[in-house]
UniProtKB/TrEMBL annotation:
The keyword Signal applies. Keywords: Signal. PROSITE patterns: ENT_VIR_OMP_2 (PS00695). The keyword Transcription does not apply. Belongs to the OmpW/AlkL family. One of its GO terms (cellular component) is outer membrane. GO terms for biological process: transmembrane transport. This is Membrane protein. Residues 1-29 form the signal peptide. Pfam families: OmpW (PF03922). Gene3D superfamilies: 2.40.160.20.
Amino acid sequence: MRLINTLKAAGAAAILVAAAAASITPASADDMGFKGKSAGDILIRGRIVGVVPDEDIKSNTLAGEGNVDNDVIPELDFSYFITDNIALELIAGTSKHSVDWDVNSSTNVDLGSVRLLPPTLTAQYHFLSKQRFSPYLGAGVNYTIFYDAKSGAAESIKYDNGFGLAFQAGFDYAISGPWSLNVDVKKIFLNTDVTTNVGGTTYKADADLDPWLFGVGIGYRF
């Protein structure tokens, strides 16, 4: 259900982006001024991104498992083309997630919420770089900063920052001059150690958050 709701929100965002793209697209294909991707280009994209954790959160000292909800966020990214086909991409965005712990089927503990700032740098290979439709694959590294943690029913809660690997696939479709439509999917492998205090007892959990990021947006290339 969480995934369905997030995909619905992302779908609504995709409709808005498509409408924006239609408003940019000129009536005549001859006026589109298409130019393929080239070394030295800078591509800036704004996306709407659905953040869907694929979490596995367990503790050796507490029964049950943790849950993290989804979020839909705006995201900004910058790409620099080293060659016609190879680019470096840096993304900037922050998400907020509610957290709880299912002790059993009838007992759930609210663990508040936490914000994530996950700057991610990927190296990409762009196929068909001189064509309007240009898919790409990428891989890189992520460093996630956890901040503004609210402890909910617990007395305190702490998340450790950490590095993780990131992989992506997507495509750009040139729509008019320097403007393009973008669809992007990322998988970030993210692990954090969580320490919380409930009822005067300290509990530790190992959390694999491993979120999927489903994005759609508009790009402008300089």
